[in-house]
Fold:
Amino acid sequence: MYTTTRTTLRIRTDLFDQFRFLALQKGTSLQDVINTTLALGLGKISDLDSDTKAMAKIDSFRLSLADKNISLEGLLDESKADLK
Structure:
């Protein structure tokens, strides 16, 4: 069982109506629908944050390679040799 906190949230009327309709369709409580929706939304936010961090690491790696003289043909030759 989760620990709960009593709070007052202001929810737009159109969203509240959608929550209520979804709760009726699922046969669950309005509170369960709101909690599930909030949890899903927070999961998407944290996923976006991790994607942003990953892209930042990739960008910094690319910038670190910009000053180096890397031969693409040499890398391809080495890769072919490794495959044999």
In short: The helical segments are 13-26, 30-66, 72-83. The chain has one domain: 13-83. The two ends are 58 Å apart (CA to CA). The chain has three helices and no strands.
